[in-house]
Design a protein that fits this description.
The chain is globular and about 60 Å long. The strands form three sheets. Strands 1-2-9-6-5-3-4 form a seven-stranded mixed β-sheet, sandwiched between helices. The chain has a three-stranded antiparallel β-sheet with strand order 10-11-12. The relative contact order is 0.11. By secondary structure, it is an alpha/beta fold.
């Protein structure tokens, strides 16, 4: 299965299927030096499979977790590339989840003002969300994704066999991102997530539908000036919870909680049922007032207000503006029920 994404002057393919890792080099005609960036939580065999057929392969492994998306690791990978003589025509391949993809993508965007970047996501979350769209970033001064660049990949390979090694919690965290896209864009996908009795059987279809949504959005609004802001549903509060509760909660778990804040009662009721089905949290131990400093630093701020996304009915969304204090007041109201 293939999806072609066209972003401004860039076009690339997303290939989805089973048992694809070893075909990476052939599918994308990769030549020159290739740096594979992964983390120590990703099975080593994935990087080894991707390396098959590549002539000059280097590997850089970072510690697992959001804490690795930092300036030091960014600098260390760049230094490694310099030391090994990488040139502008060479390649960086991310093999792992969203943390690896964000860091490796920002490295690729920065080294020699940009080298070839390929994404091989291995978690459900990264497969349905961050695998396309060109967002790359590191966390800085305690603020998530505050330094980065828009840098689309040259190609994306999604091997659904990698989902077999995911823990249940990691899988559920990724499902939250599909729920987000379904809630705001596709009531049929939401219904599939609600009603499927065999997630493994339907996983490829859920990934495809989620990426079709993401593709449509980023093709119309690469740099988040309009429509793409809808993909931030749940993220304003979700990122704040993630920063305040790090490392106790996963990204998708935080986004799930954040979606509850800007949903109608009807949508919130359906979300809660889906959360129960996929073992996503419906509350967490955080202080609404404690979220305020993180919300105030939100990238979506416009003056003294923040652009927020609402969901009044499944399959639709709306935009609004709220002050950080108004947002925390809503958090208190929702989680006191």
């Amino acid at each position: 299965m293939k999806i072609t994404v066209s972003e401004k002057k860039t076009e690339y393919e997303v290939v989805i299927g089973k048992g694809l890792l070893s075909s990476f080099g052939e599918r994308f005609s990769v030549s020159g030096k290739t740096l594979i960036v992964s983390d120590d939580g990703v099975p080593q065999k994935y990087a080894e499979e991707v390396a098959k057929g590549l002539k000059s392969v280097y590997k850089f492994v970072i510690p697992q977790g959001e804490g690795s998306k930092n300036l030091k690791n960014f600098s260390d990978v760049l230094a490694f590339m310099l030391e090994n003589g990488f040139e502008r025509t060479d390649n960086v391949v991310a093999v792992g989840g969203g943390v690896v993809g964000d860091l490796a993508g920002f490295v690729a965007a920065s080294y020699m003002r940009g080298v070839n970047f390929y994404n091989v996501p291995t978690t459900f979350l990264s497969e349905v969300d961050s695998s396309i769209g060109g967002k790359t970033a590191i966390d800085f001064c305690g603020v998530k994704n505050s330094v980065g660049a828009f840098y689309p990949p040259k190609g994306v390979l999604i091997d659904t066999d990698t989902l077999k090694t995911l823990g249940k919690r990691q899988l559920s965290s990724g499902i939250a991102e599909s729920v987000k896209m379904a809630a705001t864009f596709d009531k049929e996908l939401f219904s599939l997530l609600e009603n499927t009795d065999d997630f493994e059987r339907d996983a490829e279809e859920i990934i495809r539908k989620s990426l079709e949504i993401k593709k449509r959005v980023v093709e119309n609004d690469l740099k988040e000036q309009g429509l793409r802001r809808a993909l931030n549903f749940g993220h304003t509060v979700g990122h704040a919870i993630e920063s305040a509760c790090f490392p106790r909660l996963l990204h998708g778990e935080c986004v799930a909680l954040g979606m509850l804040v800007f949903s109608s009662e009807e949508v919130r009721e359906r979300l809660l049922k889906v959360y129960k089905k996929y073992s996503l949290p419906t509350f967490a131990d955080f202080s609404a007032d404690g979220l305020l400093p993180f919300i105030e630093k939100d990238k979506k701020a416009a003056g003294d207000k923040i652009n927020v996304v609402y969901c009044e009915e499944i399959g639709s969304f709306g935009f609004g503006k709220s002050t950080p204090r108004e947002i925390t007041d809503t958090v208190k109201e929702v989680f006191s029920k």
